[in-house]
Design a protein that fits this description.
The chain is α/β, with parallel strands linked by helices. The protein has a single domain, classed as Rossmann fold, CATH 3.40.50.1820. The protein contains nine helices and seven strands. Helix 2 crosses helix 3 and helix 4 packs antiparallel against helix 7. It is globular, with a radius of gyration of 17 Å.
């Protein structure tokens, strides 16, 4: 189920966003939009964006943080960004929670999806009681009581992915800007998210990337299960990579994208 309740915020206005890799007018590449995970900051794509921006126009943005926003709101924000850039389509890259937004977008706006990249994500969170408990605690407890558990989990994730000192510093700087309201709301959305029975409707070329050592969710198993139901999906399981794989050195998303385009017979961006 995708939560589509009404929202007081107009879906027609694009959120603030950043574009990298525009280049000279005759070398403008295809559009690629990164959708952040639970942090929602859009800042944690910094390790991948410079290389991806050599071939794509890379858009990053901060996800909604206020109010009872839902998947309709979040997917409408993506559509608004695409229209604001005078485009009709984009490749959508969604990481973790962002993967659920990417899947929702592909179902709500299939005509606007050039391609889909889903990283360490799922069509339905299996341990429903755990995610509902986490959402309840995040909404009800002071953030200072939640922070120690998040700190421990994040440190373990960064360690497993071999994230260097400077990149860890940038990670923590971004994470400290996350509001409790936005974090809790995203957990609530995950708790009710279920598009498992609709995966077969997604016809866009899809690359499912999973870290073999993801301790947060069984990403490899989820990717393989999704690919079995999606007509045009390819799976890339990265050995040694965990949930924070985009911050480590085991994944180069630009190379995975190029390999994927070659495999499906697509044109390589210049």
């Amino acid at each position: 189920m995708v939560d589509q309740a009404a929202s007081p915020t107009s879906p027609s206005q694009a959120p603030e966003y950043k574009v990298e890799g525009t280049g000279p007018a005759d070398l403008v590449g295809p559009l690629l939009i990164y959708v952040a995970g639970l942090d929602g900051t859009g800042q944690l794509f910094f390790k991948q964006s410079p290389r991806v921006a050599r071939c794509f126009r890379v858009v990053t943005f901060r996800s909604r943080e206020r109010g009872q926003f839902n998947y309709k709101d979040l997917t409408d924000d993506l559509a608004a960004i695409i229209r604001d850039l005078s485009e009709t389509k984009a490749t959508i890259v969604g990481e973790s929670f962002g993967g659920t937004v990417a899947l929702s977008f592909a179902l709500r706006h299939p005509e606007m999806v050039e391609g889909l990249v889903v990283i360490n994500s799922f069509p339905r969170f299996r341990s429903r009681w755990k995610i509902k408990l986490a959402a309840t605690l995040a909404a009800g407890l002071p953030f200072r009581l939640i922070w120690p558990a998040r700190l421990l989990a994040n440190r373990l994730g960064l360690f497993l992915d071999g994230v260097g000192r400077e990149d860890r510093r940038r990670f923590w700087k971004a994470i400290r800007t996350v509001s409790r309201e936005g974090y809790a709301r995203r957990l609530q959305l995950i708790a009710n998210f279920d598009v498992e029975d609709r995966l077969g409707e997604i016809e866009a070329p899809t690359l499912l990337v999973a870290g073999k050592r993801d301790l947060l969710i069984p990403s490899a198993r989820e990717a393989q299960a999704m690919a079995a139901q999606m007509p045009n999906a390819t799976v890339k399981i990265i050995k040694g990579a965990g949930h924070a794989c985009l911050l480590g050195d085991r994944i180069r998303l630009d190379e995975l994208l190029r390999e994927h385009l070659l495999e499906i017979g697509g044109a390589l961006p210049r």
